[in-house]
Amino acid sequence: MVSNRELFEEAKRYLPGGVNSPVRAFKAVEGEPIIVRKGEGAYIEDVEGNRYIDFLMSWGPLILGHAHPEVVSAVREAVENGLSFGLTNPYEVELGKEVVAAVPSADRVRFVNSGTEAVMSAIRLARGVTGRKYIVKFDGCYHGHYDSVLVSAGSGVATLAIPGTPGIPEEIAKLTYVLPYNDIEAVEKLFEERGEEIACVIVEPVAGNMGVVPPKAEFLEKLREITRKYGALLIFDEVITGFRLSYGGAQKYFGIEPDLTTLGKVIGGGMPVGAYAGNESYMSQIAPEGNIYQAGTLSGNPVAMAAGLATLRVLKETNPYGELEKKTDRFAGEISKLLTQKGIEHTVNRVGSMLTVFFTDGKVESYEDAKRSDLKLFARFFKALLKNGVLIPPSQFEAWFLSTAHSEEILNEALERIERGIKEL
Length: 425
Ligand code: KE4
Fold this sequence. Notes:
Layout: H1 4-14, E1 36-40, E2 43-46, E3 51-54, H2 69-80, H3 90-102, E4 108-112, H4 115-130, E5 134-139, E6 151-152, E7 162-163, H5 170-173, E8 176-180, H6 184-194, E9 198-203, H7 219-230, E10 233-237, H8 249-254, E11 260-264, E12 274-278, H9 280-283, H10 302-318, H11 321-341, E13 347-351, E14 354-358, H12 367-370, H13 375-387, E15 390-391, E16 400-401, H14 408-423
Parallel strand pairs: 3-15, 5-8, 5-9, 9-10, 10-11
Antiparallel strand pairs: 1-2, 2-3, 4-12, 6-7, 11-12, 13-14, 14-16
Helix pairs in contact: 2-10, 3-10, 6-7, 11-14, 13-14
The protein binds ligand KE4.
């Protein structure tokens, strides 16, 4: 039998860092990555046969758990008829109809192949319809690896961004303003000074990429007011929250309608899917109907659409959101009790079925707060849990996800394993 380590060494020969996405290399937790052979419900199994109760859940798509029978059979049925046609197929029409019916602000939707592509396209659309070039994002929010949003908070008052990585010209980075999340005064101030030149504000309505940080009361509402007042578009990046917080996403959960919405993860059921949606006046400007161009060979891929459709159908039929919220709230509370018993300072933020345990004593309402967490302690916590058969995201700044496959008895088993892990800290 091959070991995780052997396979990872081989992976590094062919793939930069041995991965196809950096966070999978476990660098943030100074750990040895596991190589996963299969997933089943709330469990995953690595190539050595070790089984873990999974709270990473592929970073969010698997709200029904791994390999849900209805999703697998829908994919099997679709794939029997071919994998891609390069022309419209019935599945994408059906999923389009489902998304438009569910997402309050969506009159129409365009499918793409990742959250990044959805964000890239939504920002191009916002710039196209407004004729403006500046955009606003929030520090600690992640919107994929598109140049205009892969930027870091600049220094100085104007908070003009700087490239978040080599390879992004500062001419592009400086078209992005980065403001502190949950700081509505900073938004008001920037719009008073530069509102007329801002095409859009993109925000995670519940931040998941600094760890879970909920919006402060009225933050989203005020964002809606300010953007409308200055003619800027409000983009809710619901790649995580879409169909996760409710069947209509965060915009339904909070009752606030953005101009554009980006989606991903859950709507693909684990297959590569992204989407952007909005009202008629915006979406009608997308080629070939309008002149704002965006395209993709595998966009609307029948097999991916079938996986997303099956996922949404099960969610719509079973409406698991209330139960998921209750289970996650109890689970988060029990973890907090275990850490308190051990005298470990922590804060647990939870919204719906997504949570983060921060190893810091204060509240976590911004990226600044989140960055005060004890990353060394998080790394030890991560490794102690992994050793005891529980997988959480290998980074302090990510969200744990529960699914309908995480039954009460599996959660109790997970809590026993977490307790053993905490005792070893
Ligand atoms: P993708 O291009 O990775 O499908 O989506 C980018 C994206 C956009 N918007 C939000 C709110 C997101 O969370 C993401 C991607 N999420 C990360 C982890 N939270 C993906 C994990 C990874 O990069 O491997």
